[in-house]
Design brief:
By secondary structure, the chain is of the alpha/beta class. The protein has helices at 28-40, 57-70, 102-110, 132-139, 161-169, and strands at 18-21, 24-27, 88-92, 117-124, 144-145, 150-153. Helix 4 (132-139) links the parallel strand 4 (117-124) and strand 5 (144-145).
Length: 173
């Protein structure tokens, strides 16, 4: 989710986890997902938890750290209808302290993605994918997790449309 940033005068430096496009505030993952969709098509699904995360930065960081330390599996508000219609899943998430958000664990433990191709993408603060690609493969052992996912510094996301588009189109889908 975008943090509590006033879009007036905001930029990728002032709000490093958001992108402001035409006055609309988008989270980095959301922006990358929309760019991928424009490049290769498909449906968008926002993985949302039942309990809303704080939008204020410090409270969000603390909340996410507590979830991670507890190994939480937050309940998801999002449900996928007719998962069988999808062969390829772009899975986007921020890297929080070298790992995926706990809601991604809930998602990956709730659905059987056997036979599907998972293509990760991840904005990060300096850690790249860390071990998240291998974690996804461990949680979904019968899926193909592509190793040519895209990890971008959160500071580069706002200016990444051409790079994300070229990457997505170059995947051969």
């Amino acid at each position: 989710m975008p943090e509590d940033v006033d879009p007036a005068g905001a930029d990728a430096v002032a709000g490093a986890s958001i992108v402001v496009r035409d006055g609309e505030i988008l989270g980095n993952v959301e922006y990358m997902a929309q760019t991928i969709q424009q490049a290769v098509g498909g449906d968008l699904l926002r993985i949302e938890t039942v309990e809303e995360y704080p939008l204020e930065h410090e409270a969000l960081v603390d909340f996410a750290a507590e979830e991670q330390e507890a190994g939480a599996r937050p309940a998801l508000a999002t449900q996928i209808e007719n998962l069988g219609q999808y062969d390829t899943i772009f899975l986007g998430y921020p890297n929080w302290w070298g790992d995926m958000p706990q809601a991604l664990y809930t998602f990956l433990e709730s659905y059987d993605l056997s036979g599907k191709t998972i293509i990760p993408f991840c904005p990060h603060g300096g850690s790249g994918f860390s071990r998240t690609q291998s974690t996804i493969a461990e949680l979904q052992p019968n899926a193909t997790v592509r190793e040519d996912g895209l990890a971008l510094s959160r500071n580069d996301v706002a200016d990444s449309a051409e790079q994300v588009t070229a990457w997505a189109q170059g995947l051969g889908l």
